Amino acid sequence: MEERWEADGGSQLPCIEPALYTIYNEYVSGRSTSEDRLMRTITNDYRDAQILNLGSGGDRGPYLVTQTGVAPSDPVPKTRMFMLRPDGRWADFNAYASQGNPEAMDEIVFSSLPEVMKTFGRLMGRPQVVDLPIDEAGLKAWIERQKNGDPLESARAWALQYKTRHRGKT
To answer: What was the pLDDT predicted at 105?
Structure first.
């Protein structure tokens, strides 16, 4: 279900509940759930991204900003799920999931929607994609953990740990 949030300056950003089942299905199957569509290069346009609220029990945030597509400089186009980082650069989600370290995910979340808007406001030109290594064994272990549980609940449990780690930091 999609919700709309009023953001600074009267613009609106799409904000949806976590779609981790889709993430899980794409990475377990090794193919995009949207393969029937043409491969699309990611952009810095907020309208092409999804903002996932990882809050639980009515809490707002933290937020992940995702976009599925092809990196602008990919020599061999491959559809991947990218995460926008607060530094304004995009990274492949698998690089973070494969680390097996909850703290590694901290650098790809936003604590508030105004922080998301501010980051999108700074983005110009072609998306900058950080090329990070993917630990194949770590990724397989992450996928295996998702098979045994509810990915949505796993994300919310991580979000609670994130909030605890960052309480008092701002």
So the answer is: 83
pLDDT, residue 168, reads 62
Residue 53 CA from chain centroid, whole number: 10
Range 160-168, long-range pairs (CB < 8 A, 24+ positions): 160/56, 161/102, 162/54, 162/62, 162/102, 162/105, 162/106, 162/109, 163/62, 165/103, 165/106, 166/106, 166/111
5 φ, ψ (degrees, to nearest 5):
-115, 135
Residue 151: pLDDT band by 50, 70, 90 thresholds? low
What is the structure's pLDDT at 83? 94
- The pLDDT tens digits of the residues spanning 83-96 come to 999 999 999 988 98
What is the spatial order of strands in the sheet that 50-53 belongs to? 2-6, 12-16, 50-53, 63-69, 80-84, 90-92, 129-130
**Is the bond into 62 cis (omega within 30 degrees of 0)?**
yes
Q: Where are the domains of the chain?
A: 2-162
Say how many C-beta atoms besides its own lie within 10 A of residue 52's C-beta. Answer: 21
CB within 8 Å of 166: residues ≥ 6 apart = 106, 111
pTM of the model: 0.72
